Each structure stands twice: as structure tokens, then as C-alpha cells.
Write the C-alpha cells for this entry.
Amino acid sequence: MSYLKFDKTQMINLEQSLPKEMLRTNRSGAYHCTTIVGCNTRKQHGLLVIPIPDMDDQAHVLLSSLDETVIQHGAEFNLGLHQYGDNVFSPNGHKYIREYSCETVPSILYRVGGVILSKEKVFISHQNQILIRYTLIDAHSETTLRFRPFLAFRNANALVNENPDIDKSVRDVTNGISTCLYQGYPELYMQFNKETRWVDDGHWYKGIEYYKDRDRGIPYKEDLWVPGYFELPIKKGESIIFSASTELEDPAEFEKIYDKELSTRTKRTSFYNCLKNAAKQFYLKNEHGDYIMAGYPWYNVRARDEIIALPGCTLAVNHEEDYLKIMDTFIAALRRNIATGEKDPVIHEIDLPDMPLWTIWAIQAYRKTTDTAKCRERFGDTVRELVSDICEGRIRNLRLNDNGLVSSEGSEKPVTWLSASIDGKPIIPRTGYILEFNALWYNALCFVKSLYEGVDGYADYVEQTGALADKCGEAFKETFLNGYGYLYDYVNGSYTDLEVRPNMAIAIGMEYCPLSRRERKTVLDFCTRELLTPKGLRSLSPKSHNYRPIYKGNPTEREYAVHQGPARPWLFGFYADAYFKVFGLSGLSFIERMLIGYEDEMSTGCVGTLNEIYDANPPYTGRGAVSTAKNVGAILTVIKTVNQMNKLQ
């Protein structure tokens, strides 16, 4: 039985099926994303959504959807589904669905009278091409399939309406057509693996709605161009493959390409395999190097997200080679930025002041997977250089103070992951001594010291670094540890921020922390009581008057709410590390029970992955980006740690 399978009763009930989404990527920035019933509910949804570097660094929807119609004895049964208003759906093709499964590839089984038809989709790795295989499993009379392509040719964050600028022309190609609606876009080739009949029948389908966008308080209606339809007969037992691509393809190769792609897929037969599959979908390779996307469907490569996600999305799934490629690309971009201020063409926000600190933390994860000698040989120079850059003031907006702590100016522009802002001004103006910055800094000093302890020629370096770490550790406790049992989130001169936030979990989850075991436990207990949920740690304690547990409303309301309560799974990774440091093997059963909350999400939101954020109060609904690298990477790392600790019992 498939791990990810939904039956007829779930599929025909739109209240259950519409919130469930699916995502496939080609690891080069393109993706296919929609709901499991095939009804697009976001403007970012689409059958073929690709980056167009010559235009911008965002994704663009070329082919929004493909409506299938089964024809027998002149009767037409349309399998498509679109929303045109509140609870107005047409043509209600979901009522023919008998099951949906996503073990290897997304697969839908339809039944129309005596016709049983399966549909399976494969996104081709590193190509802007999606293949859809239709197999007529059973039929008692002659059957014809009709396909209507719904075209958008727009930025994935925009909408299109009927307009005179559209180029409605189509060109005949082998077993299909090609078209390009607007200048600057690539040609879209739509082909089949057998001869087909194309009928010119162009129409605008007006007023298609995306309720997810409506709920966000942003524009949500558009018109899509349908230039005509394909029609071809299909026999019982026969398979037909449709291809949408930005290149002219050879239809004779479709079946071979489909089978080859199928053989490379990780079967999603378990919680771990689902997350492993999701992790690999964040990989991005282009002419500039190797990267990890922050998330889908609207994020690109963001420095902090990438480096936090990197260990879990590579090392935790035994992809050391990918870790090294991505880290090499990242370090090169970071070094250029530190030396010259040059922005990277792919990695956004690489100039943030905590990037060197998180980079050292991610390198530390490599040592945990390998050993000290190998880590020192591969990354020792980089770690020492980054520590030196911080000590000598070469990192913009990161100052090393006389007490050993680092400080940063964040009152006018966000510098931490709590980056919500209105008109560019941070809603949470974290500035001065920032908790996780200094936790990472102390950890970095201790880590680089441990890398070179006992190594010939580095005795003085180890001694000096150790002395700085000791000074930093003492100042850390004096500055952040308070008599209430938790850690201050940031301290700026005489101002001490009293809000209870999850950054203290990052601090106590570090391999090296200046707090004693008893002090760690006190802080951990505070996190457990006020911040822990089944979907991660809240971004703010419910006891705060600023607490906003649900991420909803218009863009301004959502911006105010995003860091004032909603939970994030990636923070649970640090919480779990801290829990094991405090309780050791005796904490194993609790962390295993907490993982159940994340496994539940495999069939709840975007199937097989984790949302960006979750409401801080029950039922902890997933919101934001449908699939996020930091969250997937963190939970994969927790699973790996749990498995390792189980072997010690």
C-alpha cells in the first residue's frame, strides 16, 4: 500500500482535497505545483513554471494547466477543474477521481463509466520539460482523448487578463504545436508520442480565481488563453505521453526518457523517504554553481536559508558530494562579498552580518559527519579566515567588542531571520547584542580552537582563540542569562528586550554553549513550556501582548503576525539538539514522539514535505511557502540523530 495515497472519498470532497498540494521540481529552478485534484489555487501554481534569467530571477508560468476530456459515443466527460467564484467550480472533473497516490510520481486514477484512465506526471531533471503519461486501463468501446492547454506566459507572482498584446499564432511541430504568447518568452512546445489532431479554437477563459491569493488579500482573478485543443484516439492498454517543453523534442524518445526519470526517483514509502525526496527537490544547479533553493513556490536562493538548510538537505541524506559542491559555491560568493562588497548573481542577502557565523556552523556539521582531521583539511583555512575577518572588522555591520561579544545595527534595517518589516523598517528592531549571533560566535571560537588543538605550529593560535572564547562566554552569561530562567533576545545599551523568543533554543542547541548543563536545562524548560508546539517552536511566547498565533489577513497584517507567534519546524532542530545535550539517551522517546507531529504533515499540506510556517495554536495549520528547505533539512537532521542514538541503546 502506498504511503501517500488518497481515496475517492477524500478526492471528491474539495474541502479535504483542495488544501492538499503537490510539488515537483527539475533541480534547475523550474517546477510543477498544483493541488492533488489539479485545481490551481495560487497564482504560482502551474504545470510548467520556469525561470527566465534573461527577464529576471523569478519563475514564470508558461502552461497553467491541461484539461483532459474523455469522449465515448459522442459524450464528453471533462476531467479538468477550475474555480470561477465562491464555491463555483467547473467542469468538476474531480468527481471522476477514484484515487491519488504519490509514492514514486504523482498519479491519478479516473473512472468515467466503463473507462478507467490513469495519469502520471514526471518532471525531467535539469530540463524545462514535463511528461504526462495517460494509460487506458479499461474501456468497452472506442475512446478519444481531448486536451485543452491553458496558457499564462506571465511572472508567477503576477496575473494576466485578456489583452490585445497576445500573439495567438501557433506553429506545427512533430505530433503537436508550439506557441509563444508574448515577446521575451521562450517558445512552448506541446507534443505527444503519437500523431495527434490539433484544432484551432482559441478562447479566453475569464475570471479564473485562486482562493489562496484571495485569502492573502492580494489580486486573485485572471484570464487564461486556450488556443485550441488536441484530439487523438486511445486503445485499451495503450499509453499516450504528452510533453510540454521549451525545446523541440523527439516524440520517439518520450517513453525512454519517462522510464529513465522514473528509475531515479526516491520512493516515498516512509516519513524519511518523503523528506529525502523533498530535500533533493531544493537542489539547484546552473552555470554559476550549485545551490539550495529557500523554498517553493515563490522563493529563490537566500543565503541564510541555504546555509541553515545545507547540512540536513545533504549530509543527513548521505549526499556528501552535494554538500561540498554547494558549500564551495557558497564560500566563494561569501569571500568575494567580504573582500569587495560584490553581490552574488544567485545568492540573495549574502551580505547579511551573520552569514560568516552560520557558515562556520554548517562546516561544523561536516565534522560531525566525517571527523576533525578531514574537516580541518577541507575547511580549516576557511574557518580561520572567517574568524579573522570578524576579529579584524572586515564583516560589514558586525563589530567585535572589547568584552568578546559581537554587535550589529538592526534598528533601521532587519539583519536577523526575524526580518518582517513595513516600509523597510523592522517590526522587531533587533539591534546591539543579538542572542543567536553571539551564540554562533562563541560556538565558532570553540570550534576553530578544537580543530587545531594538538596540531603542530598552532599552539599560540589555540591559546589566543581559547582566551577570546572564555571572555566571550563570560560576557554572554552576564548579558543574556537572567534570573527568570530564559535568555534575553537582544540587548542594546541599557535596553533589554524581555520577549521570550526561540533564539534561546538556537543558543542552547549549539555544540559549544557557555551555559552549564543546569542552566541549559532551565532555558530548555522555558522553551518547552512557552514555545514548543507539534510543528516547531513558536516565534513568540503566548504570554506576550504582541502574540499573534495565526498567519492570515492582508499583506500588512501577515507581516505583523509572521514573527509574533507562528511556529517553525527548523527551530525544533536546535531544540532537539539541546534536549539531547541535557537528557542524553533518556530524552530519545520524547523527541521521537515529537517527530509524529511532522510526519502527520506528509499527507496534510503539500504532500511529502513541510510548509514554511505553522499557526502557533491548534490545529497548527501550515501556511506560507508550501515547501521550505530549512524545515525539511532540520527534521532530516533530527531523524538522523535519533537513528544514531537508537544504535547506542
User: Anything to note?
Assistant: The chain is about 35% helix and 25% strand.
